[in-house]
Amino acid sequence: MSSSNVHLVDHPLVQHKLTLMRRKDASTNSFRRLLNEISMLMAYEVTRDMPMQDIEVETPLETMQAKVIDGKKLVLVSILRAGTGILDGMLTVVPGARVGHIGLYRDPKTLTAVEYYFKMPGEMENRDVIVVDPMLATGNSAVAAVERLKELNPKSIKFVCLLTCPEGVKTFQSAHPDVPIYTAAIDRELNSHGYILPGLGDAGDRIFGTQ
Ligand code: URA
Question: What is the number of structural domains in the chain?
Answer without folding.
Answer: 1
